[in-house]
Amino acid sequence: MLDVLIVGAGPTGLALAVDLARRGVDARVVEKADALFPGSRGKGMQPRTLEVFHDLGVLDEVLAAGGPAPVGMVWSDGERQGEHDMFAAESIESTPAEPYAGRPCMIPQWRTQEILLARLRELGGDVEFGRGLRGIEQDADAVTATLDDGSTVRARYAVAADGGRSTVRRLLGIGMTGEEVDPAPTLVADVRIDPAALDRDNWHFFPASPDGVLTLCPLPGTTDFQLMAQFKEGAAGTSPDGAPDTSPDGVRKLIAARTHLSADDVTEIRWSSDFRPRAALADRFRAGRVFLAGDAAHVHSPAGGQGLNTSVQDAYNLGWKLGQVLHGRCPDTLLDTYEEERRPLAAGMLGLSTRIHRGEQSRGRATQQLGLGYRDSSLSSGAAGALRAGDRAPDGVVDGIRLFDLFRGPHFTLLAVDTELPAPDGADGLLRTARIGSYEAYGRGLFLVRPDGYIGWADSAGPADPAGPANSAPAALEQIRTKFGCTGAPRPDLTRC
Question: Are 190 and 293 in the same domain?
Fold first, then answer.
């Protein structure tokens, strides 16, 4: 029997597959399309997602293929009107604790997916393309999925990562509650433009047309621009029902109508699509042995660059929990915390995206997702120094130890900062321990870091306290065993097929 069936090979499904593969989980990815998604759609990587990619082993490739978000240039009547930097509030200086803080990293979605797929294949996994889902059932022991060709797959768990029009969500009968953020449709396309006609130094804005704003953003590592154009009611280039013309000829005419460029300056249309910005949240993220992740669970406006980032972090939260359960270290009840932790955060990110889209809030630190955490989670308890349980564990290099490298992997980490740390007994590979000297980002204390880089438990007791640091390593193990339900050794009744 398969461990996990992942439906959908977008960023969510691929990130989850990579995470499970490195944890030794037998996962199978099926994708109804014949190839990876070809467009640039989700192009902005926030700092927290870059941290996740560091842990998944793809950060160097992402940074090499991407680049910082360019400064905007406003045009009118073929003349430059001046720069407009929409990311000025996000130009936060990076620090050792937040090494990737700052402007989002721009990389087209198709390239991100290529990088994740290459990493998955490196770990021994792959994607089965042209394999759509037709039906799904479950019993007390497993999920049975029926594919388009009539074949069936039986797996202990299944994950719907099949987008906003999720087939899995529909088959499960899970509702999606939300609203239309903007009644005006938006066209998005990847185009190539004669370099003599338009430079790649700026993100070009053309706001003057009465039909709506058009932008052309150079995509790093390519010769492409991402075109985004809003269509107000009755705008030229739309059908009677308001849908924009996404044909190559229609895209060329659109650019010629709203900019100083000619149709002939547009040398190639590589991909195009249209959508109406919407914000919606699935009523549940779990139905028995099936989980919803990414756009299958929440659909965002593109404003603020939150959708793909929130989706990758869904996968990151779910991956380590599935790994612990499937290896018999933790009971199935640990998986209940996936919805408990992720659904409120997704709702918050939906609200943020909507406010930014409507001009009610500016971009800023909140969009970087570094401040997100799980303080209210049932898995979080305690506080120490500068941090509370549920907070993101900061990075840094202290006493020659890179903390993110220390945390990387399927284990929990007990970090002693400026205090003693006795070696725990009976961890059986479940817990890694380390001691560092004084570090302001943490403050003094002991910190139990979850496999996804968030603090699950913290202890600030003083050295003279008999329940304090001298006994905190065993106490951390007890937290893992009681609060997380995890033990060091696999359950004896676990049968892996």
Answer: no
Rounded to whole angstroms, how far apart are CA atoms 345 and 352? 11
Exposure b/e, 31-56, CB count within 10 A at least 16 = b: bbeeebbebbbbbbbbbbbbbbbbbb
* Same domain, yes or no: 139 and 213: no
Please name which of 222, 147, 231, 252 lies closest in space to residue 185, comparing C-alpha atoms: 231
Backbone angles phi, psi at 415, to 5 degrees: -110, 120
Q: What three-state secondary structure class fits 146? A: strand
CATH of the domain at 261: 3.30.70.2450
Residue 12 in any domain: the answer is yes
CA-to-CA distance for 117 and 208, rounded, in angstroms?
A: 41
Paired residues of 192 in beta bridges = 268
Residue with tokens 């953003």: 217
Residues 388 and 466 in one domain: yes
What is the predicted pLDDT for the residue at 314?
97
pLDDT at 465: 47
Count of residues making up the chain: 497
Same domain, 303 and 352: yes
Q: For position 444, what pLDDT does the model report?
A: 94
List Cβ neighbours of 405 (8 Å cut-off, separation of 6 or more): none
Q: Given 276, 295, 318, which residue is the final one in a domain?
A: 276
Residue 291 and residue 148 in one domain: yes
Distance (Å) of CA 134 to CA 28, 166, 172, 306, 390: 16, 12, 12, 30, 39
358 and 390 inside one domain: no
One domain for residues 470 and 433 = yes
Q: Give me the domain span that covers residue 261.
A: 186-276
Whether 489 is covered by a domain: the verdict is no
Q: Averaged in consecutive runs of 10 residues, what is the pLDDT profile of the chain (497 residues)? A: 97 98 96 96 92 96 94 94 79 89 91 98 98 96 96 98 96 90 87 97 93 95 95 74 89 96 97 88 97 94 77 97 92 95 89 72 70 94 95 97 94 91 62 92 95 93 46 67 66 33
Q: Could you write out the DSSP letters of every residue in 421-452?
A: -PPPSS-TTSEEEEEE---TTT-SEEEEE-TT
DSSP assignment of 316-355: HHHHHHHHHHHTTSS-GGGGHHHHHHHHHHHHHHHHHHHH
Domain boundary among 338, 368, 398: 368
Q: Residue 233: what pLDDT?
A: 76
In 10 A of CB 364, how many CB atoms? Answer: 15
470 and 334 assigned to the same domain:
no
**For residues 317 and 336, what is the distance between their CA atoms, to the nearest angstrom?**
12
Say if CB 473 and CB 422 are below 8 A apart: yes
What is the total count of domains within the chain?
3
CA-CA-CA-CA torsion for 482, 487, 488, 493, nearest 10 degrees? 170
Predicted local confidence at residue 74, as pLDDT: 96
